[in-house]
Design a protein that fits this description.
317 residues, alpha/beta, Peroxisomal Thiolase, Chain A, domain 1, 2 domains, two-stranded antiparallel sheet, 14 strands, 30% strand, globular
């Protein structure tokens, strides 16, 4: 399904990383140098960040959202919380965040569980809410603490995920956002209750290099100058960029520095481009998130790196 929404603006994005990281050298000590070198060449990860014991997604979100709420707390009408690793089955963590962030009781609070596609699912959901004239701002927040939900003896996933929290503020502006979304029920990626993350790598690879490029191409127009992908796997991202006709420099990657940050991956990439890589001015981008479900959602949207506030908080205190 393709949809276009008018008059939207990404006003601010903030991300929080814990202060502990595991490096490729640590991975090599556990699984051997040869496996580590192959993993780095294909997946591209050099380090991942891990939350201390007892830190939850809501802890990360509160820290990420704080800089965004100073001016607009009273104007937030919808809160969308994106996570697949809540620390409680009930109540919904979005309800607890409404309380903890000091938002009004009128706020609509919803949880979204779509893994690595979660930010894009939430972005499209926010666009729908913004169609109503009474909705002033939507706060999208979330992230995952997956480092304690992987099999430490599985070399394919033990060094994959970073624990990152994010918050993004959606308001009104002059931007047109065009979305395309897809869903194909599958258990190729699972996180069973009280168990570890599981992924059928072959099925996920085949899905990603077939469905995702097709969707991206349905949105591509001449003014699109960059492709921002969920940071899943360096080889896969290079393949998607090539299949969609983008030059390597148009498909930025930060998976080496931050690993796979699940639903926080795209917010973290945006903040990294603005804060650390010198992106300035206006661009027209396609953002694409894909993951468990299987779900894949892409959007063509204008980005203004001059007026949008981007912030990475490197340490959680």
């Amino acid at each position: 399904m393709n949809q276009t929404f008018q008059g939207l603006r990404l006003e601010a994005v903030s991300c929080v990383l814990p202060d502990y990281c595991t490096t490729l050298e640590d991975y090599a000590e556990r699984f051997g140098k040869d496996i580590a070198e192959r993993y780095s060449k294909v997946v591209g990860i050099q380090r991942t960040f891990h939350a201390p014991h007892g830190i939850t997604v809501t802890d990360l979100v509160r820290a990420a959202a704080a800089p965004l709420l100073e001016e607009h707390r009273a104007e937030i009408d919808v809160l969308l919380h994106v996570t697949q690793t809540p620390h409680l089955d009930a109540p919904p963590e979005s309800c607890l965040l409404q309380r903890d962030l000091g938002l009004g009781e009128h706020v609509i609070a919803l949880d979204i569980n779509h893994g690595c596609a979660g930010f894009m699912v939430a972005l499209q959901t926010a666009a729908h809410f913004m169609l109503h004239p009474t909705v002033r701002h939507v706060l999208i927040c979330g992230g995952d603490v997956l480092s304690n939900r992987v099999d430490k003896d599985d070399h394919a996933t033990a060094f994959m995920f970073s624990d990152v929290g994010f918050a993004a503020l959606i308001g009104r502006g002059d931007g047109d956002w065009a979305f395309a979304n897809g869903t194909a029920g599958s258990t190729a990626i699972t996180l069973p209750h009280n168990a570890t993350f599981r992924m059928n790598g072959t099925d996920v690879f085949n899905f990603t290099i077939s469905k995702v490029p097709e969707q991206i191409l349905s949105l591509r127009t001449p003014e699109v100058d960059c492709l921002l992908l969920h940071q899943s796997n360096a080889f896969i991202m290079r393949q998607i960029g090539r299949l969609c006709g983008f030059a390597p420099e148009q498909v930025p990657m930060n998976i080496a520095d931050y690993g796979n940050a699940s639903s926080a991956s795209l917010p973290l990439l945006l903040c990294d481009l603005a804060q650390n890589r010198g992106w300035r001015g206006k661009r027209t981008a396609i953002l694409s998130g894909y993951g468990c479900g299987l779900t894949w959602v892409s959007a063509r949207m204008p980005l203004d790196f001059a007026s949008t506030r981007f912030n990475i908080i490197h340490y959680l205190t």
